[in-house]
Design a protein that fits this description.
Layout lengths: L1 E2 H7 L5 H9 L3 E3 L2 E2 L6 E2 L5 E3 L2 E2 L7 E6 L28 E3 L7 E7 L2 H8 L7 E8 L4 H9 L2 E2 L2 E2 L4 E8 L2 E8 L6 H8 L4 E9 L2 E2 L8 E3 L2 H16 L1 H11 L1
Parallel strand pairs: 9-15
Antiparallel strand pairs: 1-4, 2-3, 2-5, 5-6, 7-9, 7-17, 8-9, 10-14, 10-15, 11-12, 13-14, 15-16
Helix pairs in contact: 1-2
Length: 253
């Protein structure tokens, strides 16, 4: 048995929050009966109608997408710019991005119609490693590298320890590789900008054990059941780690 709003969201009809609004407004029926009580549980085998339209539970799908530069990580864009949804127009299910990458950032991005998977991947306690290639303005010193690795304060919150490798210097830029356990909004850019280095190029190479091997910009592939299972287990393991529990408690105080 699952909550009615969850079944509606899994069908791809709308988000779970919107489903709750539709239920409260009396727009949902189950086997012909109006259901307007939030928290109502169903098996998913019933005839569920939203605004008179019968919905069916979608097959859960998971994709790894190689996001190109100049593409917005949204389902539509008011300015008419290319968005990630444009690359999945031939998919019957409505898949959406898990997290986001900036307009000028390239690399690995998950797309799915599984809200539970998306929420787990994006949860602050699910510290799955993410590896980035970074090119920054200026020469990053060893002292700056170590400071960033230990963690710095951004908007009053200290970043988690990370690993940085300096791959080399070219004229007035530094080429690096950084492995993070968290993925706050524009975190890599903010970290280096706080250290006085503007990010010139940012590319996400991998999320956990999943890499872009074999993909070109704009291409996507299905994640295997094994990959999905590994990602879920990693997220749950990290989330339940004592250090993360303590960290979450300290944030609530």
């Amino acid at each position: 048995m699952e909550r009615l709003q969850k079944i509606i969201a899994q069908s791809g009809y709308c988000s779970r929050r919107k489903a709750e609004e539709l239920i409260s407004a009396g727009k949902v029926t189950v086997n012909g009966e109006v259901v307007d009580v939030l928290g109502t549980k169903v098996t998913g085998k019933e005839e569920i109608c939203v605004n008179g339209q019968i919905i069916s539970k979608e097959e859960k799908k998971y994709f790894l997408f190689y996001k190109p530069k100049g593409v917005v990580t949204t389902m539509h864009d008011e300015k008419g710019r290319p968005c990630v949804a444009d690359f999945f127009s031939e998919i019957d299910e409505r898949v959406y991005p898990v997290g986001r990458l900036d307009y000028d950032t390239t690399g690995a991005l998950f797309m799915t119609n599984d809200g539970d998977f998306a929420n787990l991947m994006m949860h602050p306690s699910s510290h799955i490693d993410k590896i980035y290639e970074v090119v920054v303005d200026g020469h990053v010193s060893e002292e700056t590298k170590k400071s960033l690795e230990r963690g710095i304060y951004i908007e009053g919150v200290k970043t988690l320890p990370c690993r940085i490798k300096i791959n080399g210097y070219n004229e007035n830029v530094t080429m690096l590789m950084i492995k993070l356990q968290e993925g706050k909004n524009r975190q890599v850019k903010k970290m280096f900008e706080a250290a006085g280095h503007e990010v010139k190029r940012l590319h996400r190479m991998a999320i956990g054990p999943v890499t872009l091997k074999g993909l070109e910009p704009g291409m996507a592939r299905r994640l295997t059941p094994h990959e999905v299972g590994v990602l879920v287990n990693l997220a749950k393991t990290k989330k339940s780690h004592p250090k993360n529990k303590n960290r979450n408690k300290s944030k609530r105080k």
